[in-house]
Amino acid sequence: MSLPTLTLCRTCRAADPALFGQIAAALEAAGVEARLQQVDCMSGCQRPQTLAVRQSGKTAYLFGEITGEDLPDVLTFLRMYRNSPDGNFADARPLGQLRFKAIARIPADLP
Fold first, then answer.
1. Residue 93, in any domain of the structure
2. Which of 14, 54, 70, 78 has the most CB atoms at less than 10 Å from its CB?
3. What range does the domain containing 49 cover?
4. Is residue 16 in a domain?
């Protein structure tokens, strides 16, 4: 099975250069397997810092205004995402404040 990929924007003026390392450390400490990468822009400049999560065959998500305070909710999201066959959730309340930071939900490719 493929791993989820987390992509973090790094070029917004309000971007926190330490966030990438904080996410990497949180993933490792929690034992959550995922690929983590940075890109120069995801056009989420009105809601920096943006984080995309995607995995083959699953709905992809784009979140905005991500900070280090969101890391517990990001880890919860990743656990729920891993356990969801299609990347969708019947109840987003366990995601805490992260559910209010969603910018887009992108459907998976059709088989």
1. yes
2. 70
3. 5-106
4. yes
Residue 22 domain flag: yes
pLDDT in tens, 41-62: 999 888 989 999 999 999 999 9
Q: Are 78 and 32 in contact (CB under 8 A)?
A: yes
pLDDT of residue 109: 83
Instruction: Provide the whole-model pTM.
Output: 0.94
Q: What is the DSSP string of 10-67?
A: --STT--TTHHHHHHHHHHHHT---EEEEES--S-TTSPSPEEEE-TTS-EEEE-S--
The total domain count for the chain is 1
More confident of the two residues 109 and 1:
109
| Beta-carbon count within 10 A of 45 CB | 16
Q: Tell me whether residue 111 is in a domain.
A: no
Going by the DSSP 8-state scheme, the letter that residue 2 receives in this structure is P
